[in-house]
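# nightly structure sweep
# worker-07 picked up a monomer target from the shared queue
# config: single-sequence mode, recycle default, output format = structure tokens
# input follows
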Amino acid sequence: MNKIKSILTGRYGVDQLNIVLLVIALIIIIAAFFTDREDYIILCSLFLGTYLYRACSKQHIVRYKENAFFMKLLKPIIKPVYIKFGRIKDKEHQYCHCPFCNQTISVKRQKGKVTIACPICKAEFKK
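# output follows
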């Protein structure tokens, strides 16, 4: 156990890009299982090899830059999902858009019609 621990000391480990590589490899394995295509196995081994190379690498700065670039590419896709789930979990506020400037406004939940004043354009509207 100590020998394995000493071998893995100083390695980069797992980050978001590695997780995505592993998930893609698993999806390809499942697709290969149902389609009986051997080229899927080769493709899967490329993804798993990249995963292992990145996880066992001692070049932390290079792997960090790769992951940062990946997250920068993924941010436009992930950010709206996080915002939507955050709004679903928020039970105290209601979110609406100002019809004049299209700004998203957070308002405490209340029963009935509420007059809302937009903090950006100062327009008032009922919701």
